[in-house]
Amino acid sequence: MFTLDQVVPWGRSFDEYRRMFALTDADLQGRILGCADGPASFNAEATRRGATVVSFDPLYRFAADQIRDRINVACDSVLEQARQHQEQFVWDFIPSVEALGQIRMAAMNAFLADYPRGSRDGRYVDAELPALPFADRAFDLALCSHFLFLYSEQLGETFHEAAIAELCRVAGEVRIFPLQALDWARSPYVESAVERLRRAGLEVSIERVPYEFVRGANEMMRVLSPARSA
Ligand SMILES: C[S@@+](CC[C@H](N)C(=O)[O-])C[C@H]1O[C@@H](n2cnc3c(N)ncnc32)[C@H](O)[C@@H]1O
After folding, report:
1. Ligand 1 geometric centre to CA of 195 (Å)
2. Which atom of ligand 1 sits closest to the CA of residue 129?
3. How far does residue 95's CA lie from ligand 1's centre (Å)?
4. Which residues approach ligand 1 with their CB closer than 6 A?
5. Which runs of E-coded beta strand occur in 97-170?
6. What CA–CA distance (Å, rounded) separates 53 from 210?
7. Cα–Cα distance measured from residue 199 to residue 145, given in angstroms and rounded to the nearest whole number
8. Which of 15, 86, 115, 185 is 20 to 30 A distant from 214 in Cα terms?
9. What is the number of other CB atoms lying within 10 angstroms of the CB of residue 73?
10. In angstroms, what is the span from residue 36 Cα to ligand 1's centroid?
11. pLDDT tens digits in sequence order for the chain, 230 residues long
């Protein structure tokens, strides 16, 4: 069972999503699925800009106050981890640990402000991989930030196979960032996923993106289903 104390809620901003996934204005015109979006402000900010975004995460079975309390508990320990491993990060767009705290808290507060209305509007859906309550090709683009590949050791390869297949079922294109696991090394499942998806007739590429916060984590996986790539 998914419980709140298993999660370290930590959310990124629209600008970070834009760079992690090399999003173009044309991408933002389509129907977008935010996977494992947690307390990221991508949905809130993209919706404000006129985009059509649905986010799903098992976190969304909890109320805003419960999520806020959990964020407040997690924040200090996440920043302390970053402070202890400063050499693992590229401090340019985010210049310091203090700025990291401010940027992430601003993103999470934007999420919290939008969450009640977004939930009522069906933009925040309580659902979890590997089985989603969406129709085939309900979305043009699925974005998965800091979930698949990151938790390689915890989730395992079978989960990754099923989860990526499910994302390809509900969206014509899937982008996943980063390709690194929590130990900072590239996930052992990346190459096997590329091979398996290509064998299944999907078009897969690993692409450099204009975002690098964890040192070396600057590539995303893009998977196009046949109808879209034809
Ligand atoms: C590190 S956070 C990433 C949040 C956001 N995508 C970002 O990059 O800012 C990972 C998220 O995965 C969610 N999660 C955990 N198990 C999941 C599952 N089986 N399916 C979808 N999301 C899950 C957690 O609730 C959490 O919000």
Report:
1. 25
2. 20
3. 25
4. 7, 9-12, 36-38, 40, 57-59, 128-129, 145-147
5. 124-125, 139-145
6. 22
7. 25
8. 115
9. 13
10. 4
11. 666 666 678 899 999 999 999 999 999 999 999 999 999 999 999 999 999 999 999 999 999 999 999 999 889 999 999 999 999 999 999 999 999 999 999 999 999 999 999 999 999 999 999 999 999 999 999 999 999 999 999 999 999 999 999 999 999 999 999 999 999 999 999 999 999 999 999 999 999 999 999 999 999 999 999 874 44
Q: Which domains does the chain have, with CATH numbers?
A: 4-229 (3.40.50.150)
Q: Measuring from atom 13 of ligand 1, which residue has the nearest CA?
A: 36
pTM of the model: 0.96
Output the CA angle 158-164-167, nearest 5 degrees. Answer: 140
